[in-house]
């Protein structure tokens, strides 16, 4: 089931981001390394071991304009070897999505659809995750467009610089 996986990664990620300014609690995610725009993380041991890469947008546009703030947004690819999950794509958007709305990921004209739940989204067709990862490795930027519960459309642009190296790092850590 996808929701618990993203929520676990999101919780670990939030703890690790907070931990950047304080001592990390036991069991929190630790950074493997940062590769340009992407950081690779690991957490847990044995059956509980998970690795993920995460990045934040380099640019955001709103329609209509004038949005004053929102929580931080992240795009992640998560691997959990014990559950045979590799590079599961997800986003934490930083606001509540409009009920039933979809997210569109665009990499060089290749589009992928994500389903939403609260402020999270996952790729709608899991068989496309490999295609998405390949597009990310070959692309330079990725846009993620979603609609908030207030009807505001956000388009976040992510740099894909460093994604291949970050994925290579988690592949070594979570084979």
Describe the structure in your own words.
The protein has a single domain (2-173), classed as Invasion associated locus B (IalB) protein (Immunoglobulin-like, Sandwich), CATH 2.60.40.1880. The chain is globular. With 175 residues, it is of the alpha+beta class. It has helices at residues 2-19, 129-138, 163-173, and strands spanning 30-35, 38-43, 50-55, 59-63, 74-80, 85-92, 102-107, 110-117, 120-123, 141-147, 153-159. Strands 1-2-3-5-6-9-8-7-10-11-4 form an 11-stranded antiparallel beta sheet, sandwiched between helices. The model is unreliable at 10-27 (pLDDT under 50).
Please provide a brief summary of the model:
This protein has helices at residues 2-19, 129-138, 163-173; strands spanning 30-35, 38-43, 50-55, 59-63, 74-80, 85-92, 102-107, 110-117, 120-123, 141-147, 153-159. It is α+β, with helices and mostly antiparallel strands and 175 residues long. The chain has a single domain (2-173), classed as Immunoglobulin-like, CATH 2.60.40.1880.
Apparent shape: globular
Name of the CATH homologous superfamily = Invasion associated locus B (IalB) protein
CATH architecture: Sandwich
Lateral strand order in the biggest sheet: 1-2-3-5-6-9-8-7-10-11-4
Q: Terminal Cα separation, in Å?
A: 21 Å
